């Protein structure tokens, strides 16, 4: 089942308004993968590719296509992947243009649009290696945007969506770009909201109670937009934007473990 919108969001408006240049904090990284992990290149165009790192643990277990946060790269998850392994989950971390081992320059439009080739690569890799059909898409912080795109428009083989510390509502960005009161900006915000409302996958939102970068009420707004599916909000007491794993690690991974272990028939 695919959720469809009649008016696709034109995220390039934010780039044209100059927001993209101030939004991204790319950094290169060429650290080799740890034992058991592997690096991958996802071709977007002949001149642009995205880096990715796969941390497998059990082909029979659930697998997560994970979009990281701003300023982060795939290798930052070398020490985090074992925590996913502890709950039996395989982790595939996809980077953005200009981040880590990726080429190209980041833009808002590419952040969202590049999710589609990342999905195709993820499924092909898992199919070729005989991994189970238990597949989920996850986005942290800035990575919520490509994750939402996948859940809305490329959800066919995924069982659920996980958002951590992310803003599903784009109105703050449209307002920062000075476009909210314009016709094009209003259409972008409305189309994005419609896209989120059309998501049919079950959703788990994890958020810090005292997050000042992406306040908790933004997660509540996203949950309220998700009227067409089951959406659960897990709030980590005392946690901000970047310390959820340290303040609420047990609660964080218990919520994910419960979510990916819930029996579901079929795929979206």
Question: Characteristics of this structure?
Answer:
268 residues; alpha/beta; Rossmann fold; globular; disordered N terminus
Task: Describe this entry's structure for a reader.
There is one protein chain. This protein has about 270 residues and is an alpha/beta fold. The protein has a single domain (about 10-260), classed as 3-Layer(aba) Sandwich (Rossmann fold), CATH 3.40.50. It is about 35% helix and about 20% strand. An eight-stranded mixed sheet has the order 1-2-4-3-5-6-7-8, with helices on both faces. The longest helix has 15 residues, at about 185-195.
Quick recap of the structure?
The chain has 268 residues and is α/β, with parallel strands linked by helices. The chain has eleven helices and eight strands. Strand 3, helix 3 and strand 4 (90-94) form a beta-alpha-beta unit.
């Amino acid at each position: 089942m695919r959720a469809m919108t009649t008016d696709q969001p034109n995220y390039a408006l934010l780039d044209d308004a100059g927001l993209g240049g101030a939004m991204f904090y790319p950094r290169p990284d060429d650290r080799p993968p740890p034992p058991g992990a592997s690096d991958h290149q996802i071709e977007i165009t002949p001149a642009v590719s995205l880096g990715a790192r796969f941390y497998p643990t059990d082909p029979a277990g659930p697998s997560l296509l994970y979009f990281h946060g701003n300023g982060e790269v795939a290798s930052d998850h070398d020490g985090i992947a074992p925590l996913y392994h502890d709950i039996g989950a395989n982790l595939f971390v996809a980077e953005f243009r200009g981040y880590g081992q990726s080429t190209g320059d980041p833009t808002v439009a590419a952040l969202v649009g590049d999710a589609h080739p990342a999905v195709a690569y993820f499924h092909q890799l898992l199919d070729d290696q005989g991994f189970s059909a238990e597949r989920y898409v996850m986005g942290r912080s800035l990575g919520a945007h490509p994750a939402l795109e996948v859940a809305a428009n490329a959800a066919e083989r995924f069982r659920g969506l996980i958002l951590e510390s992310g803003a599903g509502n784009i109105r703050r960005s449209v307002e920062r770009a000075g476009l909210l009161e314009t016709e094009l900006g209003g259409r972008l915000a409305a189309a994005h909201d419609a896209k989120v409302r059309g998501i049919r996958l079950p959703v788990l939102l994890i958020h810090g109670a005292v997050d000042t970068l992406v306040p908790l009420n933004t997660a509540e707004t996203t949950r309220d937009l998700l009227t067409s599916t089951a959406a659960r909000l897990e709030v980590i007491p005392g946690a901000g934007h970047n310390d959820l794993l340290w303040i609420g690690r047990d609660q964080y991974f218990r919520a994910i473990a419960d979510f990916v272990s819930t029996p579901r028939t079929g795929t979206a």
